[in-house]
């Protein structure tokens, strides 16, 4: 066995060191997000990166780690937003109760959709999740007394919140950012726990070889349902964040175009990596911002870039970066 | 160990109009290595799939340790003590060799835990290491399974099936695609495995099978053709007729 | 309830179903043969409508539009297969879906650039304006034409598949693509043709639907969802399934619209959910391929 050259040894050492550093993925991610408003051109953009990052992170659990290409994540993103808005606006529930209620209800929705869709596999699954999410869209469109129908949900502004007794002006952009970042940190911590847990190993095994996972003794169908629900729960938290941020919920949040955007973001960033979703969300939103300065037809360019990514850079920005650095299987 | 471990009673399977198996009645004793052989199309794979729960028989019953297995979903078979490997390598390509085996071991204990850190499950790590040791793959534990050579992947195949410590180990052509040297290694491994558990083998390589097995079951056109000790099978005129022209054998 | 009203609504449903069938057919044929689900199918339907409208106004005749648009857009489809999709064979089965999804963004926005975002009315051809007296009621001539045309297309398709050599190749290839290569059939050409056919059918659906709804860049997105629902209910890869499911969905929507119009669209999704719970592979689908 030949010994590695010194160059290789250095590379290996630094990748081990880097790998160990990147194991602290939650803390590192929070650190990056904490300074994000100063890295990006606008506060609004930074808040959106937070929100969509969380939504995409939840989706990544389903797509990147378990290998299930769903085109219906918008249903849970939207459900989180709508339930939060309805709870606060219609029922006067304080925000800190509205959010958990919304997440719980959205998880229930995920269970319902999951029971039907996890009976299918492969391409069927993608089509069915799209169709069932569209069903949610049409129900929301019709239930206008609850949802505001085509005009979206309004009338639930959260302007003042009290954190552990201290009043905080939520309308101040800096305050808002850091409150929402706390949500994001919670979501990240939850996701990291799942990924490190025994169940986290199960979903990867299912992605790698569903048949063998079953033969090894795993109830694959039930596991898929559980991850579907977890994924929906996390993405719905992103929806709660959106509702708190915008004080309106547009109907389009439930359309499959939104699901598609989530898919694009996860691919741009890098599926099956921890921080990839935030990178992807940022990439998409920055592209949208930058390109729409020149032309209102930014979707064409984003679509083209996405096609190029599918063809040539399937691991996404962050994923490819990690690969180049030789970082191992921890995939932060 | 002694006594009957697995019994197939009148097992039949048809796919639409095609009858793959009919009236297979055979019992497998504990502690023995039994081989199932037969020419291509004899129904060996189908029979194997039924014994491991991947297919449900259209007729007949399966008894394991005296209990009827009918209707048991596939993922419960391992929990009963029946484990199988595959003819076409069926591993987890992008997971490490160690993880391939560890996740298989995990299936028997905890699955839906989303809270604990699985690195703490040291017992599972130890069991995975032991299984890798048994098949000779300890040196490769950190590599990704997809980068292993073919023979090593076949060994990993078996390690995954082995780690659940099954009473009954079903191995589907473990030497598939192997040359003479690798086959010798695999035969030695199989002999070691057979010392501690009941092994059921599907194989093509006649000489290897006759040298290795305590008992041989022959299938032909979906039916049971012969069943007995290797010497009996070797001199059975029916079997010779069916295998005329098929001279395989390494080992 | 008035029986003749119900029958008229049923006929409406069949007309609606006919468009659904032709659209879903394109999707299911491409999947059956290539194993690819074309996410841009709705966008191509929409482009078909625009192409039909444009050619009709160019030549002064709807009929030229009806004939040429599917051919032109079908050829465009072949280009897509050759340049883009072909690169993905051998990769994950999700990749063509993702790629065609990105493509749909490009196509829709492209149409917005060329034709603007507003809806354009698609005039009914003069020969088909007006209604026909069916005895029990008056039914739009154009819709009868749609039903008839789709029936003819189905017949031609069936005859081609069952009676010609090409059809034999397609049917065999759907079962086992490797056999085709062994037999010396140029699989690349077959894929090209099938993909072109699938896209052409989508475009045909678009042209036919044009006079029944207004033509706008968004019309493809509802169609995509509808096509997905129909193919899932019918069973991906099954032509019979597409026909049966398309008619079922069209009639269901139409009848429900009588009693509860706001539930009409929702009903087709509910139908799909029910079918999936009972038979996840669809009514005529094969177990194991996708469920």
Give a description of the structure:
With 332 residues, chain A is mainly alpha-helical. Chain A has helices at 6-22, 25-39, 43-65, 74-89, 95-117, 122-142, 144-147, 173-196, 198-208, 210-216, 220-246, 256-269, 276-294, 298-312, 316-324, and strands at 160-163, 166-169. Chain A contains 15 helices and two strands. In chain A, strands 1-2 form a two-stranded antiparallel sheet. In chain A, strand 1 and strand 2 form a beta hairpin. The longest helix of chain A is centred in the last third of the chain and has 27 residues, at 220-246. Chain A starts with 5 loop residues before the first helix and ends in an 8-residue tail after the last helix. In chain A, 56% of the residues are buried. Chain B has 251 residues and is of the alpha/beta class. Chain B contains nine helices and ten strands. The longest helix of chain B is centred in the C-terminal third of the chain and has 17 residues, at 180-196. The two termini of chain B are 28 Å apart. In chain C, 72% of the residues lie in helices and 2% in strands. Chain C contains eleven helices and two strands. In chain C, strand 1 and strand 2 (138-140) form a beta hairpin. Chain C is globular, with a radius of gyration of 19 Å. The model of chain C has no long low-confidence stretch (mean pLDDT 88). Chains in contact: A-B, A-C. Chains A and C meet through helix 6, helix 12 and helix 14 of A and helix 4, helix 9 and helix 11 of C.
Structure at a glance:
The complex is a heterotrimer of chains A (332), B (251) and C (291). By secondary structure, chain A is mainly alpha-helical.
């Amino acid at each position: 066995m030949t010994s590695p050259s010194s160059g290789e040894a250095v590379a290996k050492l630094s990748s081990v060191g880097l790998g160990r550093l990147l194991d602290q993925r939650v803390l590192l991610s929070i650190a990056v997000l904490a300074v994000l408003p100063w890295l990006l051109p606008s506060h609004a953009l930074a808040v959106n990166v937070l929100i969509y990052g969380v939504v995409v992170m939840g989706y990544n659990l389903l797509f990147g780690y378990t290998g299930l290409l769903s085109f219906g994540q918008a249903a849970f993103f939207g459900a989180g937003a709508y339930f939060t808005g309805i709870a606060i606006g219609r029922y006067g529930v304080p925000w800190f109760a509205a959010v958990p209620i919304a997440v719980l209800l959205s998880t229930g929705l995920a269970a319902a959709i999951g029971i039907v869709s996890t009976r299918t596999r492969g391409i069927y699954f993608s089509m069915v999740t799209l169709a069932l999410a569209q069903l949610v869209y049409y129900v929301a469109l019709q239930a206008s007394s609850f949802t505001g129908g085509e005009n979206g949900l309004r009338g639930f502004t959260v302007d003042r919140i009290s954190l552990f007794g201290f009043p905080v002006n939520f309308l101040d952009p800096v305050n808002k950012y850091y409150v929402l970042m706390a949500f994001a940190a919670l979501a990240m911590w939850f996701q990291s726990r799942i990924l490190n847990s025994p169940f986290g190993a199960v979903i990867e095994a299912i992605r790698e070889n569903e048949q063998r996972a079953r033969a090894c003794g795993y109830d694959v169908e039930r596991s898929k349902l559980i991850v579907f629900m977890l994924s929906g729960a996390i993405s719905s938290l992103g929806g709660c964040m959106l509702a708190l941020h915008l004080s309106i919920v547009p109907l389009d949040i439930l359309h499959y175009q939104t699901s598609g955007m989530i898919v694009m973001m996860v691919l741009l960033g890098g599926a099956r990596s921890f921080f990839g979703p935030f990178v992807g969300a940022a990439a998409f939103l920055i592209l949208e911002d930058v390109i729409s300065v020149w032309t209102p037809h930014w979707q064409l360019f984003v679509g083209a870039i996405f096609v190029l990514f599918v063809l040539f850079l399937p691991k996404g920005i962050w994923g490819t970066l990690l690969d180049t650095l030789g970082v191992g299987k921890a995939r932060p | 160990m002694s006594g009957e471990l697995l019994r197939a009673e009148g097992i039949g399977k048809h796919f639409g109009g095609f009858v793959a198996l009919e009236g297979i009645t055979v019992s497998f004793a504990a502690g023995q290595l039994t081989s199932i052989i037969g020419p291509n199309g004899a129904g060996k794979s189908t029979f194997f799939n039924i014994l491991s729960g991947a297919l449900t028989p259209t007729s007949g019953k399966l008894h394991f340790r005296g209990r009827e297995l009918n209707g048991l979903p596939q993922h419960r078979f391992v929990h009963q003590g029946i484990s199988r490997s595959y003819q076409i390598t069926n591993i987890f390509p992008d997971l490490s060799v160690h993880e391939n085996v560890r996740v298989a071991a995990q299936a028997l204990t905890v699955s839906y835990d989303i809270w604990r850190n699985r690195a703490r499950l040291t017992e599972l790590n130890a069991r995975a290491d032991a299984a890798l040791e048994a098949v000779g793959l300890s040196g490769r534990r950190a590599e990704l399974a997809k980068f292993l050579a073919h023979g090593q992947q076949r060994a990993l195949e078996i390690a995954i099936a082995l780690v659940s410590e099954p009473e009954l180990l079903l191995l589907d052509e473990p030497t598939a695609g192997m040359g003479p040297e690798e086959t010798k290694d695999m035969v030695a491994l199989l002999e070691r495995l057979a010392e501690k558990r009941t092994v059921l083998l599907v194989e093509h390589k006649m000489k290897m099978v006759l040298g290795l097995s305590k008992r041989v079951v022959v299938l032909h056109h979906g039916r049971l053709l012969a069943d007995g000790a290797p010497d009996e099978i070797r001199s059975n005129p029916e079997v010779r007729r069916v295998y005329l022209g098929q001279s395989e054998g390494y080992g | 309830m008035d029986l003749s009203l119900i029958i008229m609504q049923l006929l409406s449903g069949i007309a609606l179903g006919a468009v659904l069938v032709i659209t879903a057919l394109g999707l299911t044929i491409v999947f059956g043969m290539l194993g690819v689900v074309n996410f841009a199918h709705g966008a191509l339907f929409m482009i078909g409508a625009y192409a039909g409208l444009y050619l009709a106004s160019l030549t002064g005749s709807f009929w030229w539009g009806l004939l040429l648009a599917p051919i032109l857009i079908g050829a465009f489809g072949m280009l897509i297969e050759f340049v883009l999709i072909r690169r993905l064979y051998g990769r994950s089965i999700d990749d063509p879906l993702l790629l065609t999804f990105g493509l749909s963004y490009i196509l829709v926005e492209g149409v917005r650039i060329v034709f603007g975002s507003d809806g354009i009315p698609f005039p009914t051809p003069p020969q088909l304006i007006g209604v026909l007296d069916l005895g029990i009621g008056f039914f739009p001539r154009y819709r009868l034409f749609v039903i008839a045309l789709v029936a003819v297309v189905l017949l031609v398709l069936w005859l081609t598949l069952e009676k010609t050599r090409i059809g034999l190749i397609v049917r065999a290839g759907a079962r086992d693509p490797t056999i085709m290569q062994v037999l010396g059939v140029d699989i690349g050409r077959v894929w090209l043709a099938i993909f072109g056919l699938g896209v052409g059918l989508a475009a045909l659906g678009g042209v036919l639907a044009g006079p029944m709804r207004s033509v706008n860049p968004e019309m493809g997105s509802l169609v995509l969802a509808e096509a997905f629902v129909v193919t899932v209910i019918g069973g991906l890869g099954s032509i019979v399934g597409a026909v049966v499911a398309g008619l079922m969905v069209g009639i269901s929507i139409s009848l429900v619209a009588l009693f509860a119009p706001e539930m009409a669209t929702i009903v087709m999704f509910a139908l799909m959910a029910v079918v999936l719970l009972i038979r996840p592979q669809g009514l005529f689908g094969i177990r194991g391929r996708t469920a």
